[in-house]
Specification:
- There is one protein chain.
- With about 325 residues, the chain is mainly alpha-helical.
- It is built from 14 helices and five strands.
- The protein has helices at about 5-20, 25-40, 50-65, 70-85, 110-120, 125-135, 140-145, 180-195, 205-210, 245-260, 270-280, 285-295, 300, 320-330, and strands spanning about 150, 155-160, 170, 225-235, 240-245.
- Helix 2 (about 25-40) crosses helix 4 (about 70-85), helix 5 packs across helix 10 and helix 6 (about 125-135) runs parallel beside helix 11.
- The longest helix has 20 residues, at about 180-195.
């Protein structure tokens, strides 16, 4: 049996994803789950299967592989896309396919002292990236995908384009990061001029823009703020390009910095975004403002950070403290 879906099905799948402007990461993830689904059912024709087969597969993921609820729901979304958008058929009543209930977890938040200690363990572009994660509330890929034209040093703001949910937003550029960001842009400009002199200097641009303006990929404004150190050859266009810095570079640096700072919390790059929102609320900023800076569609998503206010454990005095204080007075 083939180890991948039939080529015709694969072509329809890619066409349906591109037509709806899904991200490449979503396309890759959905294709992964579709392949596993077909393999689980020994590559039967998906048009001959339905709710029973989907439920059986999702149960196997939960029971045998013990995947998380979010992973199980992602697999379900991929299969629903396959049947509805690619095969053009319903698989039955949606309520017959039970979605896994995601547990409600509070975000990991660093104290200001812990943030400072973690930053002391970083240097160079890695430190500048983390400064923006914490100082601007950016997601890691949002930061790494910044273009030169998206950074306004004079207005002290950053334009985040095509963020989560393919939405644009404007967020604050911290004053403490301006000097470092200006030096980074100078270094990127110097390297870009060298690339141009060698006949390179290309970066990836949106397809529609590349067709309308064929030389846009070499323009200064479209260059990455955090480019990779190496170039690559893009075969279909024949261009020597630079990609942005890979996210694993920052993830490894942050992991090492957290370890060296002796921070016991399970912190990651995304923890700095959580800390940004939490510390803004601690400072008395309006939750609607924080919602806009984070790019949340619904304010209920931002409300999770209110656990640090007086409604949380910090605002409660333990009865043990009162008991021991009374005994000490006696």
């Amino acid at each position: 049996m083939p180890s991948h879906p039939p080529s015709a099905l694969l072509a329809h799948f890619h066409a349906a994803m591109r037509l709806r402007h899904y991200s490449r990461r979503t396309e890759k993830a959905y294709l992964h789950w579709i392949r596993r689904f077909l393999k689980y059912h020994q590559f039967r024709d998906p048009s001959e299967m339905g709710v029973a087969e989907i439920r059986s597969y999702l149960s196997a993921l939960a029971v045998k592989e013990q995947v998380s609820a979010s992973t199980q729901n992602q697999a379900l979304n991929a299969l629903l896309f396959l049947y509805r958008e690619v095969l053009g058929r319903e698989v039955g009543a949606i309520d017959e396919i039970v979605r896994a209930k995601r547990p409600k977890r509070l975000p990991v938040v660093l104290t200001r002292e812990e943030v400072r200690a973690a930053l002391e363990g970083l240097n160079g572009p890695n430190k500048l990236v983390v400064l923006l994660l914490y100082g601007s509330g950016l997601r890691l890929l949002e930061c790494l995908r910044l273009r030169v034209k998206d950074v306004d040093l004079a207005a002290r703001q950053i334009m985040v384009r095509a963020g989560k949910g393919n939405r644009d937003r404007v967020t604050v550029l911290p004053a403490a990061a301006r000097a470092g960001l200006a030096r980074q842009l100078e270094e990127v400009y110097r390297r870009h001029r060298q690339d141009l002199a060698r006949g390179a200097g290309w970066v990836e641009v949106p397809d529609a823009l590349g067709r309308k303006y064929p030389n846009a990929g070499r323009e200064w404004g479209w260059q990455w703020v955090f480019p990779a150190t190496r170039q690559y050859w893009e075969g279909s266009s024949g261009q020597h390009r630079r990609h942005h810095l890979h996210e694993t570079v920052i993830q490894r640096a942050v992991k090492k910095a957290i370890h060296c700072a002796r921070i016991a919390k399970p912190a990651s790059c995304h923890t700095f975004r959580h800390s940004f929102a939490t510390h803004l609320l601690e400072d008395g900023h309006d939750i609607r403002t924080v919602q806009e800076l984070l790019g949340h569609r619904d304010v209920s998503t931002t409300m999770i950070y209110t656990h640090v206010l007086n409604r949380g454990p910090i605002g409660v005095r333990s009865p043990l403290d009162r008991l021991l204080k009374t005994e000490a007075e006696d």
